Amino acid sequence: MEKATVILDRDFIVAAVDEKVFGSFVEPLGRCIYHGIYEPGHPKADAHGFREDVLEVIKPLNLTLNRFPGGNYTSTYRWEDSIGPVEQRPWRAEPAWYCIETNEFGINEFADWSKRNGSGIMMTVNLCTRGILDAMYVLEYCNFPKGTYWSDLRIAHGYPEPHGIKYWCLTNEIDGPWQVGHTTGTAYGMLAREASRGMKRVDKSIKTVLAGSSNPGMPTYPSFDAAALEESYEDIDYLSVHHYLSNAKKDTPNYLAKPLSTDKFFRDTVSTIDYVKAKLRSRHTVNISFDEYNTWHGVSESDEQRHEEEKIWAVAPPLLEDAYCQEDTVALGGMLITILRHADRVEIACMSELVNCISHIRTSASGVWVLPPYYAWLHFSKYGRGTSLVTRIDSPKYDSTDYTGVPYLDAAAVLADSGDLAVFAVNRSLDESLPLELKLRGFSRYRVEEHIVVESAGPKDTNTEREPRKVTPHSRGNAAIDGGLVSASLPRLSWNVIRLKKIQGSAE
Ligand code: AHR
Question: Mean pLDDT over all residues of the chain?
Answer without folding.
Answer: 95
